[in-house]
Structures are given as C-alpha cells and as structure tokens.
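Worked Example 4.2. Consider the chain below.
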Amino acid sequence: MNLKILILLTAGHFVTDINTGALPAFLPFIKEALALSYTKTASIILIFNITSSVIQPIFGYLSDRWSVRWLLPIGPFLASLGLGLLGLGPSYAWILLFASLSGIGQAIYHPEGFKTVNFLGGQKKATAISLFHFGGNLGFAVGPILATLFFTHFGLKGSLCFVLPGIIMLGVFLFTTQWKIKVSPPAIKATHLARSGPSAQNLLPMTLLLLAVVLRSATRLSLLTFIPFYFITVLNHDPLVAGKYLSVFLLFGTIGVVAGGPLADRFGYKRTVLVSLGLTPVFLYLFLFTSGMLSLVFFAVAGLLIISSNSVTMAMGQSFMPQNVGMASGLILGLAMGIGGIGTTLLGWVADHFGIPFALQITFILPLLAFLVFFFIPYPPHDQAGRSKPFPES
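Applying the procedure from the previous section yields the following structure tokens:
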C-alpha cells in the first residue's frame, strides 16, 4: 500500500466532498432568498445528484478503458467552483446550473480515485477504501459548519470562500507526480479484456447490492436535506444548531467509515453491513424522541453506523465486477446514490404536504428496508466458473 499516494488522493477526496456537505446547509438560506417550496429546494439536491452520481458510471467506463488520470486534479476544482458560485445565483435556474457544475466535479473525481485506491489496497481493499472514504467523509463533516459560518459572516456570497480549497488542491496535483500511478500490466490486460459487467452468477447479488445502497443513500441524503429544516423551521432553533448537528453526524460518520473497513476485513463484509443497517433506525428514532445533548449523541451514533458501511459496500461491488473496477465504483457511489437523491425529492413532496417530521419518520424506515434487501445477498462472490472467491465471508 503506497501511503503517500493514498494520502494525496484522500486530500483530493476531502476537498471534493467539502462541497457536497456544504450544499444542504445552504439550502434553507437559498429557499428563503428565492421563496422556493420544499419540493423545489429538494430538487436542487436531485440535480446535484444526477450530475454528481448518475453519470459516474460513464466516467468509470472511461477509466476502465483508457488512462484518464488527468481527471483527478480537475474534479476537486470543478466541485469547488460550482459551489462557490452558488451564492451568486440570481435565479433558480442559475442555482441549478451551479449545482450541476459542482456535481460534475464530483462525478469526474470519484471513479478514477476509487479505481486507483483499489489497486493500491492489495489484500486489504476495504481498509484502503475506508482511508480514502475518510477524506470524503471528513469533507462532508466540515462542509455544513463552514457553510453556516460563511453565511453568518458574508451572507450567500460567502459561498465564494469554497473556491479557494479547490484552487489549492489543483495546484498540489499539478506540482506533484505521486498521483500519476501506473497500473501493473496484468491489471491493464485484465481490464481491457474484461466484460462490461458482472458475471451471470454475480448479476443478482450486484443488483441487490445497488438496491441496498440506493436505500441507504436516500436515508443519508434525506437526513442532510431535512434536518436543517427540522431545527430551523420546526424547532425554531438557530441555524448554527442545525450546522452543529450535521457536522457531528458527519464527523462520527468519518470515524465509522475508518473503522468499518478494518472491521469488515476482520469479521466479514456482510456481517458488518447488516449490523450497521440494522442498528441505524433504532438510533434515529431515539434522536427524534429525545432532546438536548442526548439527541445529539443518538444522532452521532446513527451517523457512525450508517456511513460505516460505505467502504464495505464499495469493496463488495468491486469484487462482483473485478475486471471493471472503475464502472463498479461509478455504479455504487454514482448511480445508486443518484437514484437515492430521487428519493429525497419525493420526500420533499411529502414534506410539503404532510410536514418535515413525517418525512423524517419515513426516512428512518429506509435503513431497515436496506437491511432486508442486503440480507439476501450471497457473499463472497463467484468467478466466471462459479467458484467462490476468497473474500471475507459473512
């Protein structure tokens, strides 16, 4: 495992995902400035997720076929530029355009980044992926508190402050060479001779995995979208309180994603994911029906649990498509999460008609549905001859 390259890629992931974490925290202020409905506001997340997630398999396909390492420095810059311009949007259409630009930066960086980390991970892929996820989740956690801080001091135009990290990261990539890692010839040969998808034996498990990730993603995105509204419009708290809850949720998620990979490598991929999905609804409901520090603790534990499985499901998806790692990464992190964003928009409609608390209670059920789907995934995967591969078992 080349730690220097992994740290550089993790830093790029951190800068890229700062913007993803900051976007939901800006939504209440954008909603007020443009007098938007909850449905229109949630649609900003939908557009962001379509551009950041749904098109990721395309970049994953390109990554599997050709060397596109140059995407790594461009991704964090575009993600930061799009969010930086968000506060300058004079209309709803401009807001959607800038959110799309930021999303494209996300779509560019992730498949190539995850593919490179997969090659770096060796026999401990979940551990390497969890370290890479650490940067992204730390960015998620820092994003909301930075967004509320910048808004408090500079108003919506404070979003421009997010452009600076993107410029710095672009400079770091351009003036270093460690990230220009060469894939070993056997890996290249396997990649170019590969099929475009999983084997017949692994098609159903991969489909079930994607469905479980969709449900988990819808849970996470809905929490990030509606928790600020819950505290600001339902509980009448200061916006900084909402920012604090989101940041704590994501900070503990960062701890969870770092711990999840090594735990899965030791105790089994499937078992680790089932525990995280099964316990998440319990702590979300405990959060909803408590207050003060106790609710914050329960919300933090829920964040730790639900995000801890991210690196594990990524490693599982790559094991189902070992010769199309870039596309597998795009499907897991991109397409599945993008479809999860559609669920967030539907819950925006629910919030418009039945209120934020009801929408949150529906959200809390989604991890349980993901648990039921995931339970039926056979693991470890099988090769083309139907033999079981030597991955951690459940």
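The mean pLDDT is 82. Residues 200-234 form the longest helix (35 residues). Compare this with Example 4.1 before moving on.
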